[in-house]
Amino acid sequence: MTDSAVRIARGQVSLIPVGWAIALAAYGAEAIWVALHRPAISSDDALFLLHGLTRFSVLDLSPQFPGYPGFIAMGRMMLPVAGDPLHALAMLTGTIAIAIPPMAALVAWRNCGSAAALAAFALALAQPLAPDLGLSLLTDGSGILFLLVFLALLPRAGEAPQSGHSFLAGIALAWALACRPSDTVLFAGAAIGAFALARRIAGPAIVGALFVLVPVVLAIAAQEGPAYVSEGVRFIGGHATLWGNTPFAGPGHGNWLSALATIPGGVPLAVLIVAAVGVALMRLRGAPPALAAAVVAFIAYAVWIVTFQNPDQLRHLAPLAVLGGLIAAMLIRRIELARPAITALLALEVWCLAATTQFDAYALPPLSAATEWLEAQSAAPTVATNLGVEALRRALPHTRVYDSYYAGDAALGLATAAGPAYRLTTTPLAARPPDVTFAGRFSGEPTLLLYRVN
Q1: Are 335 and 112 in contact (CB under 8 A)?
Q2: Which of 41, 158, 216, 405 is deepest in the core (most CB within 10 A)?
């Protein structure tokens, strides 16, 4: 063995520079891979956000409730550079996804040092939903990114809070809320955890939050009026009982454990993350406010998604994946077994990411691929689908598209179709294999199955 190899084996040479070299090479490869993808609509939600970049109206689904005003504002800032709304949306979500690992590393470095920073960077980069954040053209990544900015601006353990930093932290958390209002529970948990350990930051942070939220609320109220509340009631009711597949929808709804079981390594990965959060919860005495904020936010959000989010949408787990990795990284100097646990967590993430990701950068989202297939048919078909109803109607104006959530209408439409009729679904039919399969590109993107209806 060489002298350097002997020193490494004896622990006399830090492996951190080697780790950073590997992590940064992987980071560059992931950034290039995301940038190579052709922008394409992946869901109705992405289509509605696209419309919002040119005309904001929640009542007209531009975008859907609750509007995501912060995200729309950033998308419009991208328009002059990108040239059109679709490329602006793709540029925004790709940039946000690529910014998350460095921001997680910054939070860990400020509070726990360089080893924690490397662990946080690697775990955020390898988490299996990272491609979804960059390529789905949705808002999930924006809430996570600005939550991390909030955590980075919190004082370190034992450090006197600075009013300016606390004010900026409030602005960051409020902007996270403006980008992703549906994650209110996540951000409220972060605020509660931070204020519990650093009460002196609460005043300036609340002032900073109001500095953002008051203009946003007034602008929406002026444009949408009282009808915004009515749309909110309609949307929340539909999400809870009709299309959301939540416990409120009655018996037969999905569950998160079954959803995780469909992903290679998903269940043990979740167990390791929950274990890290549990250990961190027991070690909060003397911990940095950022760790307390992350732990309380994780727990509050986990309860929220289990009770009120759709297990078919794995992307809702992305905040837990990023925060779980960050929490594990910040334990690296506080718990003796943290390093081997982080190694196991990273290995599980890499396995899960590799097993569920199509690395073909030119692959289209299943909805866009199905749209192209249907458009190529010689006769205009009739389609019933439970995903992408509006996107298909806009892209295929000569095709009759029925919403499968309204089963009676869909069955009647397929039965009376003059030409070829198809069922496009995320749920396999027990009777026979699909005629065409449009595979999801990564975990969190559902595979679409096309069945010809006789």
Answers
A1: no
A2: 41
Residue 177 and residue 184 in contact, taking contact as beta carbons nearer than 8 Å: yes
pLDDT band for position 449 (cuts 50, 70, 90): very high
Report whether 228 contacts 58 (CB < 8 A).
Answer: yes
Rounded Cα distance between 171 and 309, Å, is 27
Residue 6 pLDDT level (bands cut at 50, 70, 90): very low
> Could you tell me if 133 and 100 are in contact, meaning their C-beta atoms sit under 8 angstroms apart?
yes
pLDDT of residue 74: 97
- Determine the distance from the C-alpha atom of residue 81 to the mean position of all C-alpha atoms in its chain, rounded to a whole number: 24
Q: Which of 119, 117, 71 is nearest to 95 (CA)?
A: 71
Question: Between vectors from CA 253 to CA 42 and to CA 446, what angle results, nearest 5°?
Answer: 20
Q: What is the pLDDT of residue 14?
A: 66
Which one, of 305, 304, 282, 286, lies nearest residue 295 by Cα? Answer: 282
Task: Check residue 8 and give its pLDDT.
Answer: 44
Token pair for 135: 């390529």
Residue 284's CB is within 10 A of a number of other CB atoms, namely 16
